[in-house]
Amino acid sequence: MKKKALAVALLLSGTLAFHGQAFADEYSNGTIQGEALPNVVHGVNQQASGSPKAPWQDASLTQAAQAANAGNTGNSGNGNNGTGSNASVSNSSSNAVSSSESSTQGATTSNAPLNVQNGSTTPTYTDSTIGLGGASITMIKGEQSGQQISIVIESNDGSLIVVDGGLKTNAPYLAKYIKDRGGKVAAWLLTHPHEDHVGALAVILEQQKKEGHPDYYNIDPGQIYYGFAPLAFYEQYEPAHRIPMMKEIMEDLAQYDSAKRHESSPAGTSFTYGNVAVEVLNTPYSIPIDSGNNSSVCYMITINGKKLLITGDLPYEAAGKLMEERGADKLKADIVQMAHHGQHGGSFAFYSAVNPRYALWPSSQELWNKRKDAFTEDQESYTVALTKFWMNKLGVEKNFVMADGNWVLK
Ligand SMILES: [Zn+2]
């Protein structure tokens, strides 16, 4: 069934810019021909660079990944890629690339612009085929051209659950979006303290304390769930430019209503709003490689029986640890938020466990278009093409990409 869908998707993509022959060429360039699944590039690099080998790494590898590891030619990956939140650039919302791959265009897709106070014309695409029972998942691009994670889930009873919130510059857009839907957030889930995730919330919390702030900041952020590694740990292992944002959000949260603050909730913590149930999957890991991303807290969100896995920027190492802690079965989901915007995130073994039908890519246009340099010697750059390859291999039926605009799944 999935293979058939994949074949159809590939067939359809032949007429469009992405995939088609170009895509095929990239995957037969010798580097990964023979399906030497390069999800192990990360691990190889880690050992080569002298980093300590964490105990969960071997245990978390599936047979497939081990086989791939054996076939790996020793590409040097970079565990701490710095694809940043401020990636900038192209902002063409007319791109139909991703929807083509997923064949989401047509009857279920509309592009009526969100009615935002400042007149933004960011297109909003809707796919109504998921079966969320009156609930919706919205991945917000807002007015951003960089990458971020800003997802709002609305339950069938109108409760709002926000995931991360995105860049600082996304704060006005997100606040207006929430305000337009009643202004009250039920639960706000943070993954990790990088600016493209917690920036918007920091701005909202800070603006609320300032005199004369715009009215759209008068919203209730609700119950905030978060968990970070210790600041001292980040200070030791994160790039210095990351630290101010971490301190900022930690201070903002420390000043937030303690009755609505839920720090490092134990794995298994769960709560329900309408037909949306949220489960916290892990407390943050302190891993001295890519430490901010590796401290991502993951959430399994069940909506009308359909599961959405939120991964934040979960890299290879933490993905392995999460699989070991929770068991692969526990990670099975219908929809996955692609880890780390679709590059240097998760592993093939991890996504095999999730085995999603639908993929949410919180990827900028710039990142999404990265292809040619994915397997050059400059391995520290981009692996998004590799991740696409994994998703194709797993038979994902639809890929929704933030670069296109806002995406609403129903
Ligand atoms: Zn990120």
From TrEMBL:
The lineage of its organism: Bacteria, Bacillati, Bacillota, Clostridia, Lachnospirales. Residues 105-127 have a biased composition (Polar residues). InterPro entries: Competence_DNA_uptake (IPR052159), Metallo-B-lactamas (IPR001279), RibonucZ/Hydroxyglut_hydro (IPR036866). Keywords: Signal. Residues 147-364 form the Metallo-beta-lactamase domain. PANTHER family: DNA INTERNALIZATION/COMPETENCE PROTEIN COMEC/REC2 (PTHR30619), RECOMBINATION PROTEIN 2 (PTHR30619:SF1). Residues 1-24 form the signal peptide. It comes from the Bacteria. This is Metallo-beta-lactamase domain protein. Residues 59-73, 83-104 have a biased composition (Low complexity).
